[in-house]
Amino acid sequence: MKPTLPAKLLQALAPWRDAPAWHIAFSGGLDSTVLLHLLATAKPLVPLSAVHIHHGLQAAADAWPSHCQSVCDYLGVPLRVMRVQVPSGASLERGARDARYHAFAQVIGAGEVMLTAQHREDQAETLLFRLLRGAGVRGLAAMPVHRPLAGGHLVRPLLGVSRAELEAYAVEHQLQWIADPSNADTRFSRNYLRHRVFPILTERWPQAVPGLARSAEHLSEAQGLLDELARMDLQAAEQPSAFPWLGLPSLALAPLRELSDARQRNALRHWLNPLTRLPDSDHWVGWQSLRDAKHDAQPLWSLADGQLHRCGERIWWLPSSWSEFSDVPVSWSDAQRPLQLPRNGELRFCGKAPAGPLEVRYRQGGEIVDVPGRGRRDLKRLLNESGLPGFVRGRLPLLYRGEFLVGVPNLAGLWAPPSQDWQLHWMPQTCDQGLS
Q1: Which CATH architecture describes the domain 5-222?
Q2: pTM of the entire structure?
Q3: Where is this chain's protein located in or outside the cell (predicted)?
């Protein structure tokens, strides 16, 4: 006997029954209406709520929050309505999706679950759409049943359910749902596939949709194996750097060089995936140029959301906002308290701060500093000796008293502090503090 739709749903959600809360992404359409009704009537022990995202893209959408509210009131489910701004760009679909998931990330707390109602036809459309765009295994794995989102989880429990099953359930229970007029607009790629391509495919191959969805499952399993291989290959490359205080992701280059080109790309895709949108096949020549550059070169590879830098035998990830800091001098009137540098972290003293009016400046070139036991030394040469990555040097805070350079943060491990009475510590702004 085939399991009922409620049984399928509860089985899919079994791994998440101990989550602190479940949130349903409730558009008011057929799919999310069925999901909401299934869960509200199942009365799970997990606290349940709904979230409606108002994109503001069409006049008809202004009436949808009130419809969603009435449905939630009837089912006894709390509803939160969130208005988002969809940025203008080449793809309205992508902009709306990004805005929607950004809002979801604001809703869920640690360990909580956001449930979305994509079904089997959605999965087949995603696979075909990405196949036409030339996606690799990761893209062709289509939509995962589960993925991390903010501090919680995004779960799609209906991916194994057909749209026909959802419609039958809705009719049986006399549910009312919103018919989004934009779903009929074939100018949008997914709608074109849904209304023009899939009817022809299923006329010739009736099992096209479940077949494509099954292929997506196989590709998802293959991607899981590639991820396991990547984690194994990255173990040796993830040895700590000489500058762990920088707080930037980095890898040792030598272990990567020992891998085949295909395994290098696989390991890097896995490592870069949470940091940036991944490059297409043609763009990977940038990795080869960075990897094969001369030892004393400092090449970089520009990606969608940042840059990969190579310094010596190490590669570093710098998010796009790394350069967004102010190099304007900053007065330090109360040196007993930490100094917050504009988008450049924090500077503080350990020990008694030196007397006099102090100011933080940034490198202009030609700086000289006193080094205990070595006398007056050229700062540039000292930085070269230290191996401090070149991309850090422009934002290294320098402490001045008048026109005299009295200190460089010893946290960089460059040399001994200028005095036994105090040390200058710099904690740069890290990716977790807003650089990514």
Answers
A1: 3-Layer(aba) Sandwich (3.40)
A2: 0.81
A3: Cytoplasm
